Amino acid sequence: MGNSFGKLFKITTFGESHGRCVGVVIDGCPAGLKLEKKDIQEELEKRKPKAEGISTGRREEDEVEILSGVYKSYTTGAPICLLVWNKKARSKDYEEIEKGLVRPGHADFTSFFKYGGFSDLRGGGRFSGRITVSFVLAGVVAKKILKERLKIEILAHTIQIGEKKIEKVKISEIRNNVYKNKMRCANLKVAEEMEKLVEKIRREGDSIGGKIEAICLNLPLGLGEPIFDNLDGEIAKALFAIPGVKGVEFGRGFEVVKLKGSQNNDLFRIKKGKIITETNNSGGILGGISNGMPLVVRIALKPPSSIFLPQKTVNVRKKKEEILRLKGRHDACFVPRAVPVVESILAIVICDFAQRAGLIERVISKSPYYH
Ligand SMILES: Cc1cc2nc3c(=O)[nH]c(=O)nc-3n(C[C@H](O)[C@H](O)[C@H](O)COP(=O)(O)O)c2cc1C
C-alpha cells in the first residue's frame, strides 16, 4: 500500500475507520517548531462533522495524542507521531457489508478483492473519510512551518454544491466567513441555500457532491521539481488521496479548451519592482514550477456513495445479486468536511517542496547552537 508521501517532509499515515486509531508519523520536521496540543486540536475541530442534517451522526472527540518528536512544546527533529483514538465506531451498522453486500460506488468492492477478502470493511476501513484525520494532523505541522518561515497562507472554501455555486469572492470573505458556517462557504447567503439543498437531499435518503477551491498566497517562485515532480502533478496526486476526489484543476483548468492563446496567456508586468502577471489563468504554476502568483486549484468531490435508498448490488462472498438497504451514519455531502483536509494536503506538499528548494533550515527557531 502507498501510505507515505513526500521526500524531505515525509508523512506516513495509518489507521482505519473502526480500528483503534488514526494517525501519522512525520519525518523531516525541523527542530525548534512550537507545537502544542491546542494548536492541533483547533485544526481537528474544523474537520469534525458540524451539521445535523448534512454530516455523519458519528461524533468523535478527536483528541490528539502527541506520542513522539516533541519535548517541552518544541519539535526535536525526531519523527513526530500524532494519533487520535477512535471511540465512537459502531460496527453493527456494517453487518450487511461485512456479509459481502458491497456498497455501489464505494471502495468495498475493490478492496475486498484486492486484499483477498482480508480488508477491514467496517465503516469503509482504510478507505473511509475518517483517514483524513491523519492529513489534518500532518497539515497542522506543515502549515506552521510555512507560516512561520515563509508567511505562506493557505485558504480553501466550498464554491459549489450540486447546481448551487458562488460567483466572485474576495480573499477577505474567505478569511472571515468560511469557518463561521456549516457549509464552509465564503458567501453566507449562498451557504444557507447550500445547506437547505443538502438537508432536502438527505431527507430523500440521497447524497450530493460539490467543488472546493483552494488558494495559496505568498508562495515563492521556484517550487516544484520538473519533470516528474512538478508542483501541480504532486499536488494533484496528494489531493487524490482524499477519498471521493474525482477531479483537480489549476487556474482556468478545463475551461482552457475553449480559449485562444491570446485569451489564456497571462501577460507579464512589473509592479513595485516585482514581476507579476496581469491575469492568473495558469493558477500560479508554469512548467510545474510556482511563478510567484497565487496558486489556485479546484477540486471536484463526488456525492457520498452511502445512500439510504435501496440499491441493487452483489453479495461478493456468495456471488449472488441482492438488494442493499444501508444503515449507519453517513454524510449526505462531505464537501464541507473536506475543506480543512484540502488545506492540509496543500500545506504538506508545499512544505515538502519548500524543503527541497532549501528554503527551510534544520532548526526553525533562532538558536545560539545552530551550525
Ligand atoms: C471527510 C470525508 C467524509 C466522507 N464520508 C463518507 C460517507 O459518510 N459515506 C460515503 O459513502 N463516503 C464518504 N466519503 C468518501 C468515501 O470514503 C470514498 O468515496 C470511498 O473511499 C471511495 O473512494 P473514491 O470515491 O475516491 O473512489 C467521505 C470522504 C471524505 C473526504
β-strand percent reads 15-25%
Query: Helical region count?
Result: 9
CATH class: Alpha Beta
**Low-confidence blocks of residues:** none
What does this structure look like?
This protein has 371 residues and is α+β, with helices and mostly antiparallel strands. The chain has a single domain (4-356), classed as Chorismate synthase AroC (Chorismate synthase, AroC fold), CATH 3.60.150.10. It has nine helices and 18 strands. The chain has helices at residues 37-47, 95-99, 108-114, 132-150, 171-177, 188-203, 231-239, 261-264, 335-356, and strands at residues 4-5, 10-15, 21-27, 64-68, 70-71, 74-75, 80-85, 153-161, 164-165, 210-217, 245-250, 268-271, 274-277, 285-286, 289-290, 295-301, 311-315, 320-324. It has a five-stranded antiparallel β-sheet, covered by helices on one side. Strands 9-8-10-16-11 form a five-stranded antiparallel β-sheet. Helix 4 crosses helix 9 and helix 7 (231-239) packs antiparallel against helix 9. The chain is globular, with a radius of gyration of 21 Å. The mean pLDDT is 95. Flavin mononucleotide binds next to helix 9.
Task: From the structure above, extract its key features.
23% strand; 371 residues; Chorismate synthase, AroC fold; single chain; alpha+beta; binds flavin mononucleotide
